[in-house]
Fold this protein.
Amino acid sequence: MSKKNNTSPKQQTSFIFGKKNYTMMFIGLGVIALGFILMAGGGSEDPNTFNPAIYNFQRIRLAPTLVLIGFAIEVYAILLNPNPKKAE
């Protein structure tokens, strides 16, 4: 009886995304985090007094826009092809 060698060829493991994808993902996460940081705050020390700073431009327009831009960067990073084939 002969022994069969059941060793399969070595499979090369690699990441789904490339370095460019991960770089864009971290940039997107940074923009999202910046948006949430700008959105924070605006409260008052005394609950009986109203602080109109919660309705300023930074919290109403700028911060949500940054969060949406960050999500768009994340989608772009996922769809980005790390190894485009060169046209010949």
